[in-house]
């Protein structure tokens, strides 16, 4: 196989590999957080990733859920961390990973 054929095959392989998701957008991911703690309880939510900080949101008991949607970053592994606080003085805290993209990369149907 000559050099021109090898380069052509490499370009085709790269195009097929990189085009996944470019032709049609992938569905967005959604994180949903709802307060079902106890009547009168407030839940403070603070979610952030490398690309964004959504700020602080107060979710009251049985209020509609707090949710946010986002797409996966094509070059950096998308991760969202959320900090939840509740209690009379917001003294009970839980930090957790709300979303982590697949390390194999973006996969669309």
Any overview of this molecule?
This protein has 109 residues and is of the alpha+beta class. The strands form 2 sheets. Strands 3-2-5-6 form a 4-stranded antiparallel sheet, with no helix packed on it. Strands 1-4 form a two-stranded antiparallel ribbon. It is elongated, with a radius of gyration of 21 Å. About 6% of the residues have low confidence.
List the main descriptive attributes of the protein structure presented here:
109 residues, alpha+beta, Immunoglobulin-like, four-stranded antiparallel β-sheet, two-stranded antiparallel ribbon, 39% strand, elongated, self-incompatibility
**Order of adjacent strands in the largest pleated sheet:** 3-2-5-6
Strand content: 35-45%
**Average predicted confidence as pLDDT:** 83
Shape: elongated
Poorly predicted runs of 5 or more residues = 13-19
SSE arrangement, N to C: HEEEEEE
Structural class: alpha+beta
Signal peptide: 1-21
Subcellular location: Secreted
Keywords: Secreted, Self-incompatibility, Signal
Family: Belongs to the plant self-incompatibility (S1) protein family.
Short summary:
This protein has 109 residues and is of the alpha+beta class. Belongs to the plant self-incompatibility (S1) protein family.
């Amino acid at each position: 196989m000559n050099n021109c054929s090898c380069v052509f095959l490499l370009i085709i392989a790269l195009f097929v590999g990189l085009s996944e998701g470019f032709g049609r957008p992938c569905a967005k991911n959604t994180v949903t957080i709802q307060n079902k703690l106890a009547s009168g309880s407030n839940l403070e939510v603070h979610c952030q990733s490398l690309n964004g900080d959504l700020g602080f949101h107060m979710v009251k008991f049985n209020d509609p859920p707090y949710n946010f949607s986002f797409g996966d970053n094509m070059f950096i592994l998308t991760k969202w961390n959320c900090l939840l606080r509740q209690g009379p003085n917001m003294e009970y805290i839980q930090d957790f990973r709300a979303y982590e993209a697949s390390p194999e990369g973006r996969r669309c149907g």
